[in-house]
Amino acid sequence: MSDGLISEHHVARTRRRCRLIVLLDAAERAAITPLESSRLHAFAYLADVLSPVWNLPPFDGKILKIEGGPHYPELQEELDHLVVMGLVEVSDLRYVSRGLNGSRLQGRYALNFDSDHLDPLLAAIGAHAETTPYDPDDARVHEFLVELAGALATLPNDEIDRATSFDATYRSEGPGENVIDFGAWVNFPRVANSTWRTADRFHNFMPEGASLTQGEKLYLYASYLARVAHG
Questions:
Q1: pTM of the prediction?
Q2: What element of type H or E holds 109?
């Protein structure tokens, strides 16, 4: 592997690890930790699919739709590394069935606040309002994830991953729709992203002259998921 590819691979791994830490920090603030593996992946998926609500690009390029809800293999690999590094705690490890996709190791994850390295890392990646992050955009990403985690916290904790399977994009059916291509949304998000269209449509039901904030759209979408899941 060339130096350029090694460097690119290292950057990608670092970005995934930082993403996981911010996801878990947002979940901590919403009091929904420790998160089951499946719920953490559901949170990551909804962050991708709802990112246009916050005028942010999706983090991932593609995800394969599988039985049991979204799963990011590379993100899970980095999550395991964070456990080994002492930045994340895991409990209740066990194997669970994923239907036709076999069995998978499942656990409950949360940040390890006893780690001396965690607090400065959170500050560097935008999770501390009083500290300037290395990348100014990281503060916006963290704000978005905290708001989304708060919206998901309105669902019973054991229904977060289940409700995601009823997401407007994830449950769509049609030729070639077994893969969700987030990258295809960059130029034409309204056309390709059913989830964003659904969240954006809530303003049609508002009284004349009223509007919805970005955060309110996330909360309404979480409520929509709960209704569809129980419909």
A1: 0.88
A2: strand 103-111
